[in-house]
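debug: dumping io for the single-chain case to check the tokenizer round-trip. Nothing else runs in this session.
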Amino acid sequence: KMIQQLELAREEADKANRSKTDFLSSMSHEIRTPLNAIVGFSDCILEAKNVDEAKENAKDIISASQTLLEIVNGILDISKIEAGKMEIVNKKYNAKQIFYDLAKLITPRMQDKGLDFTYEIDPNLPAMLYGDSANIKKIVTNFLSNACKYTDHGFVRYEVHSVNLGEYSRIIISVEDSGRGIKKEAIDKMFTRFQRLEEDRNTTIEGTGLGLAITKQLAELMGGKVIVHTIYGKGSKFTVVLNQKIEQMDMKEKVAFTEHLDLTDVKILIVDDAPLNLKVAVKLFEKYQANHIDTCSSGFECIDKIRSGEQYDLIFLDDMMPKMSGVETYHELQKYPNFHVPIVALTANAITGMREKYLSEGFQDYLAKPIEQTELIRVCNRLLGREYTTTSMDPVKEENVEEKNKVIPVETNIEELVSQYVELTDSGEEFPTTISTMPQEIPTTEPVSNQADILPVVDLNLPSTTPSTTAPTEVYDRDYLANNGVDFDKALELLGDMDMYDMTIQDFLAEVEDKWNRMKEYLATHNMEDYAVDVHSLKSDCKYLGFMHLAEIAYDHELHSKNNDVEYIKDHYSELETEYNRVLSVVKNYASQLKKES
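debug: decoded output
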């Protein structure tokens, strides 16, 4: 018996060693493939004869980089799962929005392959669910990506159904395709790590084979189940079934929504200590025909204007201001007789619970900075007594966190129950030849912007016949910013157009170094109150311009300085300073190009 146990242990050890060798071999191959492409196409950019050729190479670099990122994320996820460190993080989420967004994200890839992609989201899906939306997105993204990868022609159909059962909703998500299908004997291997089926047929398909293994384990961690129906050579249908707590059942519209906002002859006062924020806000309001805008940079100035008899229809009041905060200014204004002007808290304090805090102080509404245009429309229309959308939600029973986070497993015989809502086909049977079209009430999908169209950073229009000793001329343009980590799409969404962006970035440069010098002085004197005001302003400016990493670091400093945590600020100051100097260099280079062009 002891010999048998030793032999079994030896076999297990050999198996573990083989698995480790297979893992290293597989990862070496999979990681080197996109890396070789990145290095190769980077060399091609340097040797490109024109901009168009360089753009094509840049697209291939981005594609290879995305593949590499997918591989690394997959390795990290599977390692966390096996180490028991993969956490399910439950929170409230807008289910319909998430499932619609996933459809829109995959649409361009489907269109590039010429596939007929349709989707349907159950209108009975609860408005808000409670669960791990991030991992649900990973599961659905994997299904959709695989359907796109392994379907050369035909269709991909994405459906989300819900069955509401008391306090929870059974979510049934399926992705069906007319792709290559899977052999019956290979189905069990699909969910094995690093296992890609029929590698000889799929040599042009990139990936590690981790996706489905992670998908299955994530679903099981959430108490769910993955169901596969496939016919070799004809297609597959992957379905995941999950139970999610119902947070809010319905959002009921009380008033018709309008996206129109006309601020003509509306008298507006904007109070903010940051000149850049004032300029951006004024430009934004002017888009809606605002022709009576007044500004001031402190709570004291605001009070002086009201005391002198100035009349306004709306006041937008920043909170984080030196000497007198927005909340303190608000309470001072309430002391004046016959003062009834609606005041909106205009602040970058956009963390959970801040809206409720400002409303409890007495503010009539709340706007987070950077200002979202849809929220601006809602707030202005509401306070001016015009039509707007307001929603009410069905009340739900309050539960403690431990109770809410309990996993609700799906039944073991779920296939039979699911078949009532999703047309599933057993192995060996034909798939339906007709695919239902997208219902009229489902919004049509629109292609998202192709972010692969990135121009080179250097001027490549150099003679190719003879080597040149002249160094390439750097071009500090929009693509230069994007290549240096600027979230350009978000910045343009907030600021509207390039002219506004260029004006804002020059204003930022004009004042940011003075702000930085003040912050250094405040840190040296342990003046955390004023340090918090300026680092808060830095964070807000960076969000408008798309410097998101610097904004995140500044936000951490803001929170700790508000708590007078000098030691944290000192310990992490170098991180803030390094990123600030990097951003400052990028901004100066870009601004110098603007100056040359003007």
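debug: round-trip ok. The first strand starts at residue 91 and ends at 94.
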